[in-house]
């Protein structure tokens, strides 16, 4: 009884042709480094995508070659988002915040053949170009014009607009027959070792895009105007670019300027209905929300790290709209769950509802989540108390890393992703993160949550930020070390801090030592880099 | 670069386990033949689905055996909707309105091994049971209780509740590994010959269910209460049952009573947010809308045949909510397009917007539509004027009929479905049906739209209904014959009708003859059966 339904692959050409055929009137607004905006229609964009497909042939990019991008959120980046996978190549979005050695490592590891670089970013990219062993062309997208930095006199340098003008546009339909063909890839910094590549297939990307259309979620429609602050170089900007093209939403692309006033002005001027970014971005905007007309906004999506309850409530107080929390990671495409309220929460107080929104919520359709003991792998009950590592399954969840890096360590025997996040799950299936597995402190057979401990330390008025790491201990296996940054102009002793914590946490949770540091080191995506701290304090001797 | 994303099949067990794990608190309300309602939770329903899976084993149904259902829209039918495909069997929903010979034909053709029949329907089913060559068990679902018709004393008769009580419930997860496995099938009456089977795969059914969640569409959520009047024996009730389980929507299942007051009372009492049915149903409800509190309704979906503009406007006038038109057919799972307004229509007058809603609209994501000349196959432009047969492609569109019936006649060389509907498409990609290919009248090389002509005839105040068919003509190839039903108590002559039409249609469109008939014959799904009329008037001699 097979084959009675059409064998139509779930591939990105469907998204392109749908946008081209039905949504030509919708707009892409891009903010430039000069502070102006450039508006183009989807119809105009589609013509350029067809030309760009010709450019990739002109440049001799292999049939399944990796094409790097080193770009902000712009309409031109969106051209690459479509032309590269629709011609069978693989879009490799390079993270602008990678350290040079990492940048070189990932471009080499992916074997990028060509890299498209915005001219304003060339100064960050070009110094490392001679270390890139596979890159044959560096195509410069001129986002700054005549006043921009001079271009190197080098045969590898090509001009984006010149190439487009000279190219033969792709005629007719794009065809990618096998939905399991790779469409895009993105590297993620693990807790140890080199960044590892996650490869998204056409199928996984298209299914993930469908999820951005669900009414119980972001629910993109043709009426929306979407401003993704989340970078297009990071996990496909949470799938919003492809989702918008599929739904026919207009987009406002903020370019390089992430200053609160720049973003608020874009939102207000272009009547954005949906915006998406990490907590740090929304923290910056919070004090200024009242200064702009944001009445068009209906959803403010927040993810990348746990959304502070106070931030979401701050938005609700200021504009009547709490943040919608999304949870996931590069390995999950990235949207795995959303912190939506359901009918079971209707009778809760506003305060209790805010607690629910601070959870990571239930999985979106097609994704499955469970929690399991990090050591034994035993599945844990959904009782709101038992903790376990979150494991994820679904058609847009990674099964392995590119080239098998890291072996199978991050995957279970039955093929689920071990996310490294530790959570409890309540009886409604709502996930609440409590820590990272790598950051748990295992003391005398019991777990200490470094996140909980950090929150208590940061509650001290003189503490700017703090990170807790585990230090090896002869008797207890591990004990916590608190690494603390004091607020400018204040002073604090370890004894004062321990005294402050007494009564706030269990006695056996109290840090064995406190180290005062200048700042907590951050990863390329702005998270606390405990890996760096652990390296810094390796061999640390706790007071006996 | 393959296999880097998890190979998770798109199969219905995902829908079942999602409903069971996250939506146990949501409800299924079923109206009984006695006029009462029975309410069950999804949690209770899920336990029964697990038992029913055991029953299918007990009955010895083959691993991929066809399981017939002869049921109304009820929670028990929904148990079959899930248990049958989740155990790898194929759900064959038998149309209650089939004529006995057709019923016997389709059950035999599908090789149904067991049929589940509601006791109130046994009188329609049992007389034909001895003609069914593959049916070994008739499981009676007792929807009427002690007062119901006596059960035949026959070893084939089994009681649903007794079987459930005795069964071993399925433990753990349901597993269907191959997403191309058949999940369900439905027969459709063509314009000629026997009914033909359309087989839905797990993949097609799950993807189609996702489409019911899109915000630009029905947009089902966990907050919805959905009342499908459209029968569950017809094209999976437009995908709503699986969509509701995936979204967590509660359902109100109307059972056998389709009387306007019964439906309105259910909607009002249970605060339905979404309802779905064919135009005939909504025509019946229209005069009574004001008598009920329908303030909970947000979407009234209408499809199955073109939605009269006046009906949709009648709903808008009465409850502020026009009908949302869906277009499709059994072969398209069935939702292919939706008549939504987009931003391009914002500046139109209310009257013009009503015209847009009377169109069948653009395709939903993953579906593609085009129009082509029915004779040459040449694709036609989207200019709002050129007509062509609508052709459809997508992962939930049929590629062939079960057992290859009908050959490839209804499919193009490049694998698109020829829908038999004739339409124009405007520049925004909105489809507007003008006729069925089989019903076009080809006069002197030009097409006469039988639908347009019927609409003009039915505009005569003394005409109750009318159908136009083509009659062979020596000179013009074909000419129109009008088959007209006069309103009760009125009289009308052919001459009066032709005079009425003069000036309303082009002179060469005027019917060559008018025949007065008692009623227009209908198909099993309530559409005009022009096939029957053509048979009745075969060899008809037009006046020269």
Provide a quick synopsis of the model.
The structure is a homodimer of 544-residue chains. The first copy, chain A, is an alpha/beta fold and 544 residues long. Chain A has helices spanning 13-22, 42-58, 75-86, 100-110, 122-125, 160-166, 202-211, 235-238, 240-247, 260-269, 279-285, 309-319, 350-357, 450-458, 494-501, 530-536; strands at 27-31, 37-41, 66-70, 90-93, 112-118, 137-141, 157-159, 182-188, 196-201, 225-228, 250-253, 274-277, 299-302, 324-328, 335-338, 368-372, 387-393, 417-425, 431-436, 441-443, 446-448, 463-473, 477-486, 513-516.
Query: What is the average of the pLDDT values of chain A?
Result: 93
The helix fraction of chain A, in percent, is 25-40%
CATH-defined fold name of the largest domain in chain A: Rossmann fold
CATH superfamily of the largest domain in chain A: ANL, N-terminal domain
Q: Based on helices, strands and strand pairing, what is the structural class of chain A? A: alpha/beta
Quickly count the domains of chain A: 3
Radius of gyration of chain A: 24 Å
Record the strand order, biggest sheet of chain A: 2-1-11-10-12-13-14-15
Number of helices of chain A: 16
Biggest pleated-sheet summary of chain A: 8 strands, mixed
- Terminal-residue CA separation of chain A: 71 Å
Low-confidence stretches of chain A: none
């Amino acid at each position: 009884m097979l084959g009675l339904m059409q064998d139509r692959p779930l591939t990105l050409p469907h998204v392109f042709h749908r946008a081209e055929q039905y949504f030509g009137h919708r707009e892409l607004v891009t903010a430039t480094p000069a502070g102006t905006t450039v508006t183009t229609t989807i119809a105009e964009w589609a013509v350029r995508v067809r030309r760009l497909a010709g450019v990739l042939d002109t440049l001799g990019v292999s049939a399944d070659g990796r094409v790097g991008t080193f770009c902000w959120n712009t309409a031109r980046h969106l051209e690459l988002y479509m032309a590269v996978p629709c011609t069978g190549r693989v879009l490799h979005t390079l993270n602008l915040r990678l350290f040079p050695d990492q940048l070189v490592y990932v471009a080499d590891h992916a074997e990028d053949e060509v890299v498209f670089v915005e001219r304003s970013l060339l100064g960050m990219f070009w110094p490392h170009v001679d270390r890139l062993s596979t890159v044959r062309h560096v195509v410069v997208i001129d986002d700054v014009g005549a006043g921009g930095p001079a271009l190197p006199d080098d045969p590898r340098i090509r001009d984006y607009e010149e190439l487009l003008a000279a190219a033969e546009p792709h005629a007719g339909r794009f065809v990618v027959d096998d939905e399991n063909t790779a469409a895009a890839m993105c590297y993620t910094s693990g807790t140890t070792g080199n960044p590892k590549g996650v490869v998204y297939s056409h199928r996984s990307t298209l299914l993930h895009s469908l999820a951005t259309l669900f009414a119980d979620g972001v629910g993109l429609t043709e009426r929306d105007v979407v401003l993704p602050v989340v970078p297009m170089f990071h996990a496909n900007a949470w799938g919003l670019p492809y989702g918008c093209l599929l739904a026919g939403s207009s987009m406002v692309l903020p370019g390089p300027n992430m200053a609160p006033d720049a973003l608020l002005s874009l939102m207000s001027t272009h009547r954005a209905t949906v915006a998406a970014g990490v907590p740090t971005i929304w923290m910056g905007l919070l004090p200024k929300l009242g200064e702009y007309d944001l009445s068009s906004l209906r959803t403010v999506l927040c993810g990348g790290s746990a959304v502070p309850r106070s931030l979401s409530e701050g938005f609700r107080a200021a504009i009547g709209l709490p943040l919608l929390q999304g949870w996931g990671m590069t390995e999950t495409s990235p949207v795995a769950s959303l912190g939506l309220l359901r009918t079971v929460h209707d009778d809760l107080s506003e305060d209790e509802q805010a607690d629910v929104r601070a959870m990571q919520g239930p999985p979106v359709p097609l994704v499955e989540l469970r929690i399991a003991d990090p050591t034994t792998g035993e599945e844990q009950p959904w009782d709101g108390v038992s903790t376990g590592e979150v494991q994820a399954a679904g058609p847009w969840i990674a099964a392995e890393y590119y080239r098998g890096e890291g072996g199978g360590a991050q995957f279970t025997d039955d093929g689920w992703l071990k996310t490294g996040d530790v959570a409890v799950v309540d009886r409604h299936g709502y996930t609440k993160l409590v820590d990272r597995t790598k950051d748990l402190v295992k003391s005398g057979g019991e777990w200490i949550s470094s996140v909980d401990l950090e929150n208590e330390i940061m509650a001290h008025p003189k503490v700017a930020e703090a990170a807790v790491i585990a230090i090896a201990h002869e008797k207890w296996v591990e004990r916590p070390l608190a690494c603390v940054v004091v607020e400018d102009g204040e002073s604090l002793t370890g004894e004062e801090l321990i005294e402050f914590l007494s009564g706030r946490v269990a006695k056996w949770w109290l840090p064995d030592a406190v180290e005062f540091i200048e700042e907590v080191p951050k990863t390329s995506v702005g998270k606390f880099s405990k890996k760096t701290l652990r390296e810094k304090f390796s061999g640390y001797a706790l007071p006996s």
